[in-house]
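Reopening this ticket.

The earlier resolution said the output was attached, but the attachment link was broken on my side. Pasting everything inline this time so it's all in one place.
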Amino acid sequence: MPTTLNEQQETIRKFRSIANFPTVIGAIDCTHIRVKKVNADGGQLYINRKGFSSINVQVVCDADLKIMDIVTRWRGSVHDSRIF
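Inline output:
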């Protein structure tokens, strides 16, 4: 993540030039990464709403599509809003 004011302002400028987004320093999204079926206790917690085993992954990138943060600790059954 941009830590200094200059880095933040540069990122804001880049997002504004791409899509006219005001005051944005990162784009965030989640996706499900398929994993082999988990047979241990609690394995059903990895089953997502589409019916397959997965890990819910959240990624934040900057205007240059560089990954700034990634979180891979949530089971597939966890809703995106909980991760956020």
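Reporter confirms the inline version is readable. The CA atoms of residues 19 and 50 lie 32 Å apart. The beta strands are 27-34, 54-61, 67-75.
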